[in-house]
Structure prediction request, 400 residues.
Amino acid sequence: MNRITQCMHGKGTVSGVMRHRHTSPADIPSKYLAFSGMYRPVVFWNLTDRCNLSCAHCYNRSGPGCQTVGELSTDEALGLIDDLAEMGIPLILFTGGEPLMREDIWELAQHAGKKGIKMALSTNGTLITTEVARRIRESGIEYAGISLDGAQALIHDRFRNSPGAFERTVAAFASCREAGLRCGVRVTLTKENYGELEALIDLALTLGASRFCLYWLVPTGRGIESYERLQLGPEEVTGALTILYRKARETDPSFMEFLTVDAPQDCIHLLTSMEQDGSPDVAEARELLQSLNGGCSAGTRVANIDSHGNVYPCQFARAENFLAGNIKNQPFSRIWGDCTNPVLVRFREKQARFSGRCAGCTYRELCGGGCRVRAYAVNGDFFAEDPFCFVDKQGIIFKR
Prediction:
């Protein structure tokens, strides 16, 4: 995760991170959660594969036809929460499918809250009414990330394969505001909505979003079929990052923050832009990014548990050979703490074996070699270069 606003406006952030390294998870301020230690990961938990939409780029292949057979039972889910609490994880992000379609979500959230675990929700927003938003807040969930992939209905509804989705999603932000629930925009940027980016940011500000989180397309789930057609080129990526940087510079950080996900190399563009601007915060931003020990959080600061209890290094690492274990057979804490687990070892010790551009790149210590899921999916080699990277073989950033 590339925390643009925090790096640009984060005076005292480094000292804050260090001060909270050994703090009880329940007492860690939200802005420091991304910097939790290896064995206390943020857990992305797919509560269900069911969804009321069927989005073309869904990494989980979720949709109305997905079944509940094999999903964790309520008792298994409560036991998992107990295990995560005992580990001291800082945050559970309930996702799906559409997590609001799981009938026991309120029971699970309340149990996690009693155990002192912070919680967030990832949702398409179409099921959020004022009453649902109130229940989300009262259950202990502190934040809802709502997917919005277009600044107009035509683009968003096509993305989500659902006429009327845009109107219901936009209405969800008003419902969250009315209920006092903090919410933000999540957008996956592709060739189909690239031209919408600046208008989307303006819409997010109008809707009262406290966060604008940009995801890049990853070739996993249904995203595999559309990857070549929809994926952006390096010039488009740097163009988008330039827009985000400018908007983050212009926006009061207490009003809305900007982030990007699943391209650790985005921090290279951020630092370069700050240096060119003569930013007084560049030294602290660099120190903050270096504290992450190599950009990518998969298998270290981030974990994924799917609806059937399978454990993966991150929510996008869903290939069969990325399966680290299943919580029905072994507690998550034991899987995650196994220093001999071959899947986790590969993610945690990846840098020594990089090839291609990543092998000799001068930025590698910052970005950690980009996204291994994307490298494996495109090249068939876990240690190959990230094909999405905008830094060429000479270490020069593509310009737009």
